[in-house]
Every structure is written in structure tokens, then in C-alpha cells.
Design brief:
Pfam families: CarboxypepD_reg (PF13620). With 589 residues, this protein is mainly beta. It is built from 1 helix and 47 strands. Strand 24 and strand 25 form a beta hairpin. It starts with a strand and ends with a strand.
Length: 589
């Protein structure tokens, strides 16, 4: 065990190995129609699966042996079964990690680096510090948990941690769990995290101005998330407790009548009272899902996206043993229907739904599968890598892409509507993208996730909060592996102001910056929300950008960039600019 000054005594050495099929780093999100690595799914309805597992401490890579280094830095790990292990070294001076070390190996050298230290402050949405919040950082490559608890000032400190990508969860009983991620390559990372308090919404349900007793009231959350429900009292009043802090679609229903209302809870607001829901004849969609042989399809996932002006809400359910479903209530008008079942074609069906019951039946066609194994140049499986499939030629309808991710063994499966020639795109997360032409159906093929020999430009990007560093180098790839070292040079800052159409400062505008080279890459599910937000003076600042040209992404609820920014709404900037002015206008209804 060696550090920068030689052997390191008193360091803790740990051996770990993932549990096949259980470790979080090997699992995918349960989302109909697609799959993503679970540790990248820290937002949206799919995050509930991750939160549930972490709360029960399931999926953590177990520590199987432990030792402390002697004065000369030597160590011995005992009691390990045959196999390969990851070795971790931890010391107040830093940390180190080495993968794929065989049990029984001798003379193993571990190097101690400075590591990464994550510190921060946890507050509620009224800016009050939260003591006793559990902070869990999960190392994505090995699903090892690192934990800390906030003190009375809301402050915590984790580390030293191995450099890499982490999923991050902050939780405390009675509060909403914060989930996201961070990129740990800087020696010190410091952030402020806001865990919003649970909210309360109360109000009354009426019909033609008269209070309605016994009406059911609930919050329609994400398509797969559970709803909070209650029933109105004799005066038509209701109260819903323990709600999340973001916008909520409130629904009331009784018999064939319904009402919906979007309720926004502002930052720091604990309750929203005096909501009025006016019952009126509502729209419902029902029907059956059948296969090509006209047999009922059980447990097909059916969802409806109801649109009423800017108000959008979802209902979803699974079909019963007879293939039947029923969705609602919703506002009469345009509804986007969706049906999904593994091994069948994903079906989408736009509908104009009137008041009352509306019947929509679906027939699912079985897919032509493209299946295989994704491996690297040495034949080792590549897990959690994205793949997409798109027809090479138009087949009588607009072409649509099918997406999937490789599992822990590198296996993948993509279903297409019909046999034919397809464009298979591999990579973008862990390996460089490459494109292949394949025929569907296709089974058992191995796809090598490395580029063909030739000249390539290698681009590295490191982004966190208020800085982005990029580096690039041209490299010749042949039949043998090439060793390349990229170095991030020192950068410059970038600052500016967000204003409204009158030139007045706008607070709460979220601004992200990305290299113009990588801005068009597809986002990863649940990726961390990078960037900064403007303060009361409308100003924003990034402390360091390394590269040539960058693109700003600007967002604020109810606003959009002014039309003068063009069709693609891009704000291009360069490092060193000190007075970037970004104008937003209110969205038109």
C-alpha cells in the first residue's frame, strides 16, 4: 500500500464483489417500453424503485474482507473464496480502488490518491437547516454506499471518495427524498441541497355551486406513481396531506362526473387552501387489448395523456385477465393513448374523446426481435450501454426508434414492427457511438462496442454545477489498443443576466452550459440537473469553462427564450464573456 510519500500504515483495505442480479449497478429501471441503468434513474416515476431498494439497503455491494496496513504498508485479506474482487483503500490521507484482483494474489500494489470530498448543507424550502438528514452517495460503477448524517447546522461531509460518478440521495422521515447525482473528480465538491417539506392541499368539491359530499379526491401524479386519495365530508370539503412540493394535478370524481385542476405550490409554501373543484360530465376511455390471434392480453400497460390547454395529466393501468382496461376521469378533448407489452409492438393511438364512456380497442402485433450481446474488444460484456433501432427505409408510416440498454451480461433485445433492414446504433454512454446495418429478426449476434480502425477525435467532458471542462485529441486506432492521455487546461469564467421582455431581472431561471460539440447528445435518464440559477438580481455565473464554444440551455416555468434567438433556441457563448444577456418571454396560452 503506497501513497505519494511511500508506504502508508494504518490504512483500511476492503474487498468487495457484487451480488449477481442484485447489485444496483447491474439493475435497470422498470419503465414500460424502455430500460435504463437504475442508478441513472434518479428522477421521474422510475426513481421510486431506486428509493425503495436503498431504503431497505438492498443492492449494496457487500464488503467481504477487511484489513489494516502494517507500518511498511503491507496487508493481508483472509477468508475470500475463489474469484475476482474490487479492493478499496481508505485513509484520512485519501482513497484508492483497484478492480478485478483475484483471490490468492500476492504482491498486489494499491495506490493512495487524494480522492474526492463532498460537503454541503441540507435545508428545507424555507431555507432552514435540517439536522439528522441521511446523505447516501452510491458509487455507480460498484454500487457501494457511502453515508453521512447532517448536524444541527444542516452540514455534512463525505469522503475521501474514489473519483467517479455517484447517485446521491438525501432523506429524512416526514420529508420528501431528494435524489440526483454528482460527478466526483474535483478534490472538493460543495453544494446546498433543499429537501422540501411535505405539503397540504385543501378545498371543496361542488356541482353547480352546491357542495358535494362523498366525492373522491386524489392527486394524479406521474403515470406510474401512487396517488394520494380522500373523500369529501358533508360540506364537500377535503384535505390531502403529505404531498410533494411540485405542481400537482388534483382530480375529483363521483359517478360519471369529474373535475381536474393544476395546483402549483411555490417555494417555501406549506399549504394551498380553498381549491374549488366543479364537477361536470367527464370523459372515460375503456376497451380491450388483443393479440394478433384476437386473444385477450393480460397485464398490458395502458396509459392516456389528457390535454386541456396547458394542463396535462396522465392515467394508467394494466389490463385484466380479459384484456380489459378503463381510464379516467379526464377532460373531453384530445387524448394520446399508449399500450406497451414486452415482446409486442408499442402501440400509440391519438383519440378525440367526448364526454361519457368512449371505447378504444387495441390489437398488438408481435415484434421481430433483434437480440444479441454487447462486448468490448477483449470479449468482455459491456453493461448499461444504450442501443437504438431505426428502419433504413420508410415502411408506409413515419419511422420510429426503439431504445434499450444492455444488461449486466451485455445482453440486449429490441423489438421492431416488422422484418426488414434496420440501423442499429450502439454507444454514447460508456463507449463511442457506432452504427451497424442489421436484419430483423436477428438472434444471438455479438456486437463489438469499439470503433473500426481509423482516425478519430477523442473528446472528454467534465461538467458539474458551475463549471465545464473539455479536452480533445486526434488519435489513430488500429488493431491493438491505443493509450491516450487527455489533459484539462485552465479555463475562464462566464457571467451574465436573465431578463424579461421589459428588460427587468428574472430570478429563478435555471441555466445549463454544455460544449457545442456534445450538446446534441441524447440525455441519460435521470441525469443530474447541472447548472446554476439566477438570483433576485437575475445574474448568473459559471466559474470555469475550458474549451472553445458552448451552448446555454435556459429554462423557467411559464417562460421561453425570445423569438430573436431563432428556431433552435440556442445561445452560443465563449469562455471569458462577462455580460451575456438572455431574454425570456412568457409563453402564450
Amino acid at each position: 500500500m503506497r501513497g505519494a510519500k511511500g508506504p502508508v500504515p494504518g490504512a483500511v483495505v476492503l474487498a468487495s464483489a457484487p451480488v449477481e442480479g442484485e447489485s444496483l449497478s447491474e439493475l435497470t429501471c422498470v419503465v414500460p417500453g424502455t430500460s435504463h441503468p437504475l442508478l441513472e434513474c434518479t428522477s421521474g416515476p422510475e426513481r421510486e424503485q431506486l428509493l425503495s431498494l436503498v431504503a431497505r439497503r438492498q443492492g449494496e455491494t457487500p464488503i467481504l474482507a477487511r484489513a489494516v496496513t502494517e507500518k511498511n504498508g503491507t496487508f493481508t485479506l483472509e477468508g475470500l473464496s475463489a474469484g475476482a474482487y474490487s479492493l478499496w483503500v481508505e485513509s484520512p490521507e485519501g482513497t484508492g480502488l483497484r478492480h478485478d484482483v483475484a483471490a490468492g494474489a500476492e504482491g498486489v500494489e494499491l495506490l493512495l490518491g487524494a480522492g474526492v470530498r463532498l460537503s454541503g448543507t441540507v435545508t428545507d424550502d424555507a431555507k432552514r437547516p435540517i439536522a439528522g438528514a441521511l446523505v447516501t452517495a452510491i458509487f455507480k460503477a460498484q454500487s457501494r454506499f457511502f453515508e453521512a448524517v447532517s448536524d444541527e447546522r444542516g452540514h455534512f461531509r463525505l469522503g475521501p471518495l474514489p473519483p467517479g460518478q455517484y447517485a446521491l440521495l438525501l432523506s429524512k422521515e416526514g420529508l420528501e427524498t431528494w435524489s440526483g447525482g454528482f460527478t466526483g473528480y474535483e478534490p472538493e465538491v460543495e453544494e446546498t441541497f433543499i429537501i422540501p417539506a411535505r405539503k397540504r392541499i385543501s378545498g371543496v368539491v361542488r356541482r353547480a355551486g352546491t357542495p358535494v359530499a362523498g366525492a373522491e379526491v386524489f392527486v394524479r401524479a406521474d403515470p406510474l406513481a401512487p396517488s394520494t386519495r380522500t373523500t369529501t365530508d358533508a360540506m364537500g370539503r377535503f384535505s390531502l396531506e403529505g404531498l410533494r412540493a411540485d405542481g400537482q394535478v388534483l382530480v375529483a370524481t363521483q359517478g360519471e362526473e369529474g373535475a381536474t385542476e393544476m395546483v402549483y405550490l411555490e417555494e417555501g409554501q406549506r399549504e394551498f387552501t380553498d381549491v374549488t373543484l366543479e364537477l361536470a360530465p367527464a370523459a372515460y376511455v375503456r376497451g380491450r387489448v388483443l393479440d394478433e390471434d384476437r386473444k385477450p392480453v393480460q397485464e398490458a400497460w395502458v396509459s392516456a395523456e389528457w390535454r386541456n390547454g396547458e394542463l396535462t395529466s396522465w392515467t394508467s393501468t394494466y389490463t385484466d385477465e380479459e384484456g380489459r382496461y378503463r381510464l379516467g376521469p379526464g377532460q373531453p378533448g384530445p387524448v394520446n393513448m399508449r399500450v406497451d407489452l414486452k415482446g409486442h409492438v408499442l402501440s400509440r393511438h391519438p383519440e378525440e374523446v367526448p364526454r361519457g364512456e368512449h371505447t378504444v380497442d387495441f390489437t398488438l402485433a408481435r415484434v421481430a426481435l433483434v437480440e444479441g450481446v454487447l462486448v468490448d474488444a477483449t470479449g468482455k460484456p459491456v453493461s448499461a450501454e444504450g442501443l437504438s433501432l431505426r428502419p433504413l427505409e420508410a415502411q408506409g408510416e413515419p419511422p420510429s426508434e426503439v431504445h434499450a440498454s444492455s444488461d449486466a451480461e451485455g445482453r440486449f433485445s429490441l423489438g421492431t414492427p416488422r422484418p426488414g433492414r434496420y440501423r442499429l446504433e450502439v454507444g454514447g454512454r460508456r463507449v463511442k457511438k457506432r452504427v451497424l446495418e442489421v436484419s430483423a429478426p436477428l438472434r444471438g449476434r455479438s456486437v463489438v462496442a469499439v470503433p473500426e480502425p481509423g482516425r478519430y477525435q477523442l473528446i472528454a467532458e467534465l461538467a458539474r454545477g458551475d463549471f465545464v471542462r473539455t479536452a480533445s485529441q486526434w488519435v489513430e486506432l488500429g488493431e491493438t489498443p491505443a493509450r491516450v492521455r487527455l489533459r484539462f487546461e485552465g479555463g475562464q469564467g462566464l457571467s451574465g443576466m436573465a431578463v424579461d421582455s421589459r428588460g427587468q431581472p428574472l430570478a429563478g431561471v435555471h441555466i445549463q452550459v454544455a460544449s457545442a460539440r456534445t450538446v446534441q447528445e441524447d440525455p441519460v435518464c435521470g441525469g443530474e440537473r447541472r447548472g446554476v440559477s439566477t438570483g433576485p438580481d437575475g445574474r448568473f455565473a459559471f466559474r470555469q469553462l475550458t474549451g472553445e464554444k458552448f451552448v446555454l440551455t435556459v429554462s423557467k416555468q411559464g417562460y421561453e427564450l425570445a423569438p430573436s434567438y431563432g428556431e433552435f433556441q440556442r445561445v452560443e457563448v465563449k469562455p471569458g464573456m462577462e455580460d451575456v444577456r438572455v431574454m425570456l418571454v412568457q409563453k402564450t396560452p
